[in-house]
Write a structure and sequence with these properties.
Oligomer: single chain
Radius of gyration: 17 Å
CATH topology: Nucleotidyltransferase, domain 5
Order of helices and strands: EEHEHHEEHHHH
Strand content: 5-15%
CATH architecture: 2-Layer Sandwich
Number of strands: 5
Largest sheet: 5 strands, mixed
Number of helices: 7
Distance between the termini: 44 Å
Helix content: 40-55%
CATH superfamily: Ribonuclease H-like superfamily/Ribonuclease H
CATH class: Alpha Beta
Length: about 200
């Protein structure tokens, strides 16, 4: 499906697309990006990052950084996730990304169904927005590339958890490693406990 570039459809507002990556992980931050695309911004591979290979994500990350009018990437740390909750942490990361933009948008387009107002700027939540709106898809790619690279660096510190492949998600190898080696400072205690308890319940 061809994604919509709202700049190219005669829209007069400066729009920033926002998306996050890593919401359901056991380890690592949640990462968000904001992208202002502009007219003429398009590429057939700019779509939901979950549909792309690592090579394609790397290629599109470079393309977006070169062609977008403005972009920013930010994260909410594990402590923020555990202190509040993952939804609030995700919105916090989006707010940080929006704050880092050089150009202030007049409308914010957000993937999903939850967002908190930012700087009195109107916003619109779009279910499956990363498969419908180009700027949101671009944001998903930037966030994915940033977070995957971060988890690879953390993997070099703690290789036993397999973060080079699971990037913090609750795979069997990851859960087994937590049982054997315990938590690291990069683990979300609230998420990890819930995941392991859920797994133990299934075994009972």
């Amino acid at each position: 499906m061809k994604l919509k570039n709202r700049f190219s459809s005669g829209n007069k507002y400066i729009e920033a697309g926002c998306d996050e990556v890593g919401r359901g992980c056991l380890a690592g931050p949640v990462v968000a990006a904001a992208v202002i695309t502009g007219r003429g911004f398009k590429h057939e591979l700019i779509k939901d990052s979950k549909l792309l290979t690592k090579k394609q994500i790397a290629e599109m990350d470079s393309y977006i950084r070169e062609k977008a009018i403005d972009f920013a990437v930010a994260e909410a740390c594990v402590e923020t996730i555990d202190r509040h909750n993952i939804l609030k942490a995700s919105v916090s990361a989006m707010h940080k990304a929006l704050e880092q933009l050089n150009q202030q948008p007049e409308l914010i387009l957000v993937d999903g169904n939850y967002f908190l107002p930012y700087n009195f700027i109107p916003h619109q939540c779009i279910i499956k927005g990363d498969s419908k709106i180009l700027s949101i898809a671009a944001a998903s790619i930037l966030a994915k590339k940033y977070r995957d690279d971060l988890m690879l660096r953390l993997h070099n510190e703690f290789p036993q958890y397999g973060w080079d492949t699971n990037v913090g998600y609750a795979t069997k190898k990851h859960r087994d490693a937590i049982r054997e080696h315990g938590y690291t400072v990069h683990h979300r205690k609230s998420f990890t406990l819930k995941s392991l308890l859920s797994e133990e319940t299934k075994r009972d």
